[in-house]
Amino acid sequence: EELEKELVAARTRYPDQAVVIRGEGEGRYQAVVDVLVACHRAKIKQYSLATVVKGK
């Protein structure tokens, strides 16, 4: 809920800004799903997923 409020505020200030969702390879997938749901509820349509490749 807090993330959703932050996303709505950010969308209001920067309507054309995309959201980049970064995660660790060992992280819980549910956390990514939760962020995607918050983006959807905040009506953010531009987002991408970023990962870190081990050893780079």
Residue share in helices?
40-55%
Task: From the alpha carbons, calculate the radius of gyration and give it in angstroms.
Answer: 12 Å
Percentage beta strand: 15-25%
| SSE pattern | HEHE
Unreliable spans: none
* Major β-sheet profile: 2 strands, parallel
Form type = globular
Q: Quickly count the domains.
A: 1
* Major β-sheet strand ordering: 1-2
| SS class | alpha+beta
Number of helices: 2
Structure description:
By secondary structure, the protein is an alpha+beta fold. It has one domain (2-51). It is 45% helix and 18% strand. The protein has a two-stranded parallel ribbon. The longest helix has 13 residues, at 29-41.
Q: What's the arrangement of secondary structure elements?
A:
Blueprint: H1 2-13, E1 19-23, H2 29-41, E2 47-51
Brief summary:
This protein is α+β, with helices and mostly antiparallel strands and 56 residues long.
Key terms:
single chain; 56 residues; alpha+beta; two-stranded parallel ribbon; 2 strands; 45% helix
